[in-house]
Amino acid sequence: MGAHVRSGALEIWTEQVGQGPDVLLIGGLGDTVESWQFQLDGLADRYRLTAFDNRGAGRTAMPAGPVTVAAMADDAAAVLDAHGIASAHVAGFSGGSIIGQELAARHPDRVRSLVLQSTWVVPDPYLRAWGRFIEWLIDAAPDERTFLEHFFLSIYTPRAHNDGTVAAIIDEVVDFPHKQSSDDLHRFLSAFWAHDGTGSLPTITAPTLVLAGGIDPTARPELGRAVADAIPGARFEVWETESHQPFQEVPDRWNARVAAFWDEVEAGSGTPAPRTAADHAADSAHPSPDRPQTRSG
């Protein structure tokens, strides 16, 4: 069961499952707790996982005033406070990875380790152009389904589009009762285009694993590599056949990889487990994923 927790005047929707070392999951653009369903289901036997709706998404309102990544990082810290969590393994994807970076820089004692999926230091011209296209699409699309059909071309692999996975996700998003307004989407996007992690990344002390999809057209591997290069001791991996959200398309593989990383940190080494021959074979095998049953974006 989920519940709202308070951060100042803001009521943040959170859900918590499982038992074990604490994990905080941070979603991306417009994403809610449901985007992490495969992790909430697949890792709860080993970890206590907390997920939340970002401000302006799902069941968390968008407060008045400027929307900044720093404020959203403080929201994440407030979620930890509300649940009595001193520190947690933090995982974020896309915009959530940027929030995770800022959380680790602003509140280093709260971050046990950091997993950054589909991330960047600062948007390059290509990513900014893609962002302008999405901003245009939000207003130009005649309805939500049409927006999602076009937006998800940049998010999921051709495999997921062709096997019906994306169609199922779109149906779930359209049926989701807690809609994000177009205005809130614009404000959320603007916060990320304005954010530059160049100065904060070198200050991150948490063990960090950076993951990139080899065919992600947005948070491309070179952007993820720049993040890993900027964070002392960070490990960087490219999953060659995956796109922006492998934690949904190949959740069993993603869960196993990040759990191995967390286990290394818990054991005290702070070093991600090395990739194995099986990992490389999986990259080249174009695995048939389980179909996600969660909303995303």
From TrEMBL:
UniProt region (Disordered), positions on chain: 265-297
GO biological process: glycerolipid catabolic process
UniProt superkingdom: Bacteria
InterPro entries: AB_hydrolase, AB_hydrolase_1, AB_hydrolase_fold
Gene3D superfamilies, alphabetized: alpha/beta hydrolase
Basic and acidic residues biased stretches: 277-297
Name of the protein described by the UniProt record: 3-oxoadipate enol-lactonase
Species annotation: Geodermatophilus sabuli
